[in-house]
Amino acid sequence: NLRKGFIRPSSSPVASPVLFVKKPGGGLRFCVDYRALNNITVKDRYPLPLIKESLNNLSGMKYFSRIDIVSAFNNLRIEKGQEYLTAFRTRFGLYESLVMPFGLTGAPATFQRYINDALREHLDIFCTAYLDDILIYSRTREEHIEHLKLVLQRLRSAGLFANPSKCEFLVKETKFLGLIVGQEGIRMDPAKVETVKNWKTPTCLTDVQAFIGFGNFYRRFIRDFSKLTAPLNRLTNKDVPFIWDDTCEKAFVRLKEAFITAPILRPFDWTKDVILETDASDYVSAGVLSQYDNEGRLHPVAFFSKKHTATECNYEIYDKELMAIIRCFEEWRPELEGAPSPIRVITDHKNLEYFTTTKLLNRRQARWSEFLSRFNFQITYRPGKQGVKPDALTRRSEDLPKEGDERLAHQSQVVLKKENWQLPPLKVQRARIRQPHRQGSIPIEEPILSLELPEDISRLLDQAYKTDEDLQSILQALEEGAPRHPKITLAECKVIQDRLLYRDRVYIPNYDPLKTALLKASHEHPIAGHPGRARTYDLLSRDYYWPGMLSYVERWVKNCHTCRRANPAREARQGVLKPLPVPERAWQHISMDFITHLPPSEGHDAILIIACRLTKMRHIMACKGTCDAEDTARYYLKEVWKLHGLPHTIISDRGPQFVAEFWKKLTQQLSINSLLSTAYHPETDGQTERLNAILEQYLRAYVSYLQDDWSRWLPLAEFAANSLKSETTGMSPFFANYGFNPRMGFEPTITVKGTPATRDAEKFAQKMNEILEYLRSESIAAQARYETQANRHRRPARQYREGDHVWLDARNIKTLRPQKKL
After folding, report:
1. Which residues contact 262 (CB under 8 A, 6 or more apart)?
2. Same domain, residue pair 503 and 487
3. What average pLDDT is seen over the chain?
4. With the C-alpha atoms ordered 701, 705, 707, 710, is the resulting torsion angle positive or negative?
5. Are residues 319 and 196 part of one domain?
6. Which of 71, 139, 610, 750 is the most buried (most CB within 10 A)?
């Protein structure tokens, strides 16, 4: 582009980011993310032509030619003095565009104005132009050749060139803007209804339910719908065997015909608003294009579905749902490009609502974002249960992969190669217990002294460097000063102490033993504590990087047997969620709770947990189940007060320690507000209950078979819990309290030079204040999300008045009756 004169070096004060994405046929495509510029650009309202009006002139025409303009937008120059607005950042400096690039919101309208000016003498006489698509039509062959010459001359004068591979000349029928135009007139492209027309005969009850669910939306347009579907509805009745007979087949065929003919299916009307409903399953993307009629009833215009490739089956659900939107816009580009009012895109994936404002995109998403920039649309969320039409098109059994399908190759549960399996094959044999062990009969070393560090990561890294050809090519490209590399962004790479760093993280070669050692360190090691996939990924990605690391971590955690054994099943809570106020500062509001009835361990049989409600930091102490209010106060004085001082509020359950007279007087004298949870309702202090569950999960993963060593693991459990990122705040409790993350012991040995930390007291205080403000804002946002999610399927508590007759739940009330079951 620099040699062509399309771009030039720039000193612009503004710039947009760039990405290189792979083209379907190979090679790289240069993309600029102009979303920020588009948001502040005054929209050009120059209209795209109304296709319905343009096609009215085709009556009686016998010969047609279709011309596609090559690199259409790049033929127009940016207005002089405005080039700086198109500036973009690269590894080699700042550049700005001299020609109209793809991705600008005003590009379609600008080019339409230009092509209209170029062909103005001939428009609607023997040609029509819709952006870079031109249709020429004539009554005779001789007349058509003359018309074709005139159009080509005008294009040459305007500096526009045709793309021969996408053109058709002197044909009697051609496809133009999603329609088939020819001597016989204009008709709808069969591809628009092919998805429904080729719907295969149902083979199971699920297929029948999906087909009926799809049809229910259009039942008001089909005469005798209930009568037509009666044979199919009969198959859905309980205790009715699935037998597909001729009656069912006839009903199925008649319904398909009804779906793709009037009055249900309507031709596209460019003057009306557009509704695009999309959905994606593991194996299929689908969409339904619809418009409202004059009576406000929604009619379909076209249907679409497409199976995923084996690679696409491995996409995250976010990308699959986004790909469904992209495919629909690609399929119906002529109808959707240049829409006068925003196209309402409806999806059942809520996070897609924020796609147009997301700052961090991967290469695939950046390519899609550039494509979507030419459309006027708004993404709207709708729960999946309400999206029957596209949902039914993605869940037909005919589209599911059969045995041997390459799309199933990405579903493997195996993370490690056989040579990396840690355990030998299990053998089943009869076991006899001759004499039970008593407490203390098995000597157990201190857990801190018996920790085994993971394999020598440096040694494994050296081995990996010798085997990974991709890494060697990256290092060579950096050494030679190459401008780009197909596998990685060289601008974000550097070499320190013979190690490749990507975004200041050690780049890990494709070597399974090394990845295994790192996963063991960041997931299985006691200082990590078997966290979930998000926290494991956060812990590992602080210092290391390799392509596909997130999916690798997800598969590892998913297949961790210890996690499956230790993690409890969680059910949704009942009752409307009412979050507690967010504290103003750290350790201002705390929560306390006991875990009791544990096996004896070094004279202890209970655990006291004290946690900060803002930073989520916790202190964990082994104690006795007989611990009273005075003992609890002593534990706080010894372990917490010396570090954080006195709180304003303490939240606890109604344990005997917290309802004792001593505790009441103590908190009153110290001006501490003691808040007790509702009886038999632990959700009041949901944070502490969740912390208890995390601790119990940790201990289940590491305690011995006799469970008499749990107290020795508590220091490591506390460290692991405080060093992992909180889902509420987005940072670890350790960082929230001290402003940095702790050293874990498996960080890289090299030192990455970064911004030096200031020791200025004022700046440090300002930094901590910013952290506290961030914690509060994130906590408030998290509470709002939790409240919305928790209350979605619940209702407020019923209001009672004095004198009302009510039923009493006696599960927690002692009575004289022998059994509560009867």
Report:
1. none
2. yes
3. 77
4. negative
5. no
6. 610
CA dihedral 611, 616, 617, 620 (to 10 degrees): 40
CA neighbor of 4 nearest in space, from 89, 116, 95: 95
Could you give the CA distance from residue 440 to residue 708 in angstroms, rounded to a whole number? 8
DSSP code at position 755:
P
Co-location of 382 and 466 in the same domain = no
What Cα–Cα distance (Å) separates residue 32 from each residue in 7, 86, 330, 367, 372? 13, 9, 20, 9, 13
Question: Which pLDDT tens digit goes with each residue over 109-125?
Answer: 888 899 999 999 888 88
Nearest to 108 by CA among 72, 152, 141: 72
Candidates 215, 397, 221, 239; CA nearest to 230 is 215
Which residue, 236, 251, 242, 202, is CA-closest to 400?
202
Rounded to an integer, what distance in angstroms lies between the CA atom of residue 770 and that of residue 767?
5
DSSP 703: S
- Stated pTM of the model: 0.39
Query: What CA–CA distance (Å, rounded) separates 656 from 668?
Result: 17
Determine the 3-state secondary structure of 408 from DSSP.
helix
- The CATH number of the domain holding residue 731 is 3.30.420.10
DSSP 250: H
DSSP β-ladder status, 589-595 and 544-545: unpaired
Which segments within 348-415 are labelled E, that is strand? 377-381
Element (H, E) at 303: strand 298-307
Q: Is the domain of 513 the same as that of 650?
A: no
541 vs 655, higher pLDDT: 541
Which of these, 741, 748, 742, lies nearest to 501 by C-alpha position? Answer: 748
Looking at the structure, tell me whether residues 21 and 166 fall in a common domain.
yes
Residues 6+ apart with CB under 8 A from 99: 6, 73, 74, 75, 76, 77, 78
Condensed to tens digits (0 to 9), the pLDDT of residues 368-400 reads 887 888 788 888 888 766 655 566 666 655 555
Based on the fold, state whether residues 207 and 185 are members of the same structural domain. Answer: no
Nearest to 328 by CA among 296, 381, 397, 375: 375
**What mean pLDDT is predicted for residues 390-411?**
54
According to the model, what pLDDT value does residue 225 have?
64
Q: Are residues 112 and 52 in the same domain?
A: yes
- What is the residue range of 234's domain? 192-259
Provide, for the chain, the percentages of residues in helix, strand and coil under a 3-state DSSP scheme, each rounded to the nearest 5. Answer: 40, 15, 45
Buried/exposed 228-255: b ≥16 CB within 10 Å, e otherwise:
bbebbeebeeeeeeeebeeebeebbeeb
Chosen domain end from 761, 777, 798: 761
Provide the pairing of β-strand 88-90 with 63-68. unpaired
Name every residue whose Cβ is closer than 8 Å to that of residue 148 and which is 6 or more positions away in sequence: 65, 136, 169, 170
Angle between helices 317-331 and 363-372 (to 10 degrees): 30
CA 200 vs CA 129, 284, 396, 407: distances in Å: 39, 15, 9, 21
Distances (CA, A) of 692 to 21, 561, 575, 592, 622: 46, 21, 21, 10, 13
CB 84 within 8 A of CB 19: no
Task: Show the DSSP H helices in 739-802 as ranges.
Answer: 761-791
- How many separate domains does the chain show? 5
Q: 460 vs 375, 456, 514, 535, CA distance in Å?
A: 50, 6, 6, 24
491 and 367 within one domain: no
- Single-letter amino acid, residue 112: Q
**Who's near 254: CB < 8 A, 6+ residues apart?**
228
Alpha-helical runs (H) found in 373-483: 388-393, 457-467, 469-480
